[in-house]
Inverse folding.
């Protein structure tokens, strides 16, 4: 079973929806992990790379990067943005690049789009095949205790840029048996005040608990070496944090 990908409309407005996301801060955070826990990190694989903004910022720091995403539309945007970086259309739950890396990252809750246990198992198997000994795996995902502490609610988000105004309303439906948040989005796009398109999207994102992911890690020879909220390396994770970062090291 493959993970879900996103269509042309989602990719088209993806960067606009996330224009307030601080990619520079997140990449500085990643580099601090590399320096604190890694062993001469020079190459890494970005799984669920989206439109390539993490890869772009990290390439400026001199790292050799390959990005992989299931969405052809996302990869098209990433290639146009960063023509010197190798971006590949592929399924992060099952891939074979015939190459090993010093580190593998999976950011922005991308792991949550693998909603089935078999997909998670295959993800860790694929990651293991692509990591050098003592290589790092860095996962940014939804924190289960945070989600259960502060349940998702309906929200409205408005973003504007260059004459475009997009109103996105979200309607979550939490499936606690499967650890999945099913979200329906209603999107209206206005250009210079006139409605030019309206559509709906369905989004399924899985949330995780520390011991759950640690078990998947351990089964493939990884040791969990650090756990923290996103993106504060020295803070302890609590139920007030919706997002967490787990750092694993391949030891066997």
């Amino acid at each position: 079973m493959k993970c879900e990908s996103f269509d042309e409309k989602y990719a088209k407005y993806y960067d606009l929806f996330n224009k307030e996301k601080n990619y520079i801060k997140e990449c500085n955070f990643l580099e601090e992990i590399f320096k604190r826990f890694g062993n001469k990190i020079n190459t890494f694989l970005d799984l669920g790379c989206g439109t390539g903004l993490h890869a772009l910022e990290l390439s400026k720091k001199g790292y050799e990067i390959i990005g992989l995403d299931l969405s052809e539309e996302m990869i098209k945007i990433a290639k146009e943005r960063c023509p010197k970086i190798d971006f590949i259309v592929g399924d992060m739950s099952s891939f074979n690049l015939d190459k090993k890396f010093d580190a593998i990252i999976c950011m922005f809750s991308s792991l949550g789009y693998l909603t089935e246990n078999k997909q998670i198992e295959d993800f860790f198997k694929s990651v293991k095949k692509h990591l050098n000994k003592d290589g790092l795996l860095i996962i940014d995902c939804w924190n289960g205790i945070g989600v259960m502490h502060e349940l998702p609610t309906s929200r409205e988000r408005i973003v504007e840029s260059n004459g475009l105004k997009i109103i996105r309303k979200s309607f979550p439906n939490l499936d606690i048996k499967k650890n999945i948040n099913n979200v329906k989005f209603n999107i209206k796009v206005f250009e210079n005040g006139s409605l030019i398109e309206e559509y709906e999207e369905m989004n399924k994102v899985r949330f995780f608990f520390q011991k759950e992911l640690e078990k998947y890690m351990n089964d493939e020879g990884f040791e969990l070496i650090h756990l923290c909220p996103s993106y504060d390396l020295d803070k302890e994770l609590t139920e007030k944090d919706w997002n967490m970062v787990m750092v694993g090291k391949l030891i066997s």
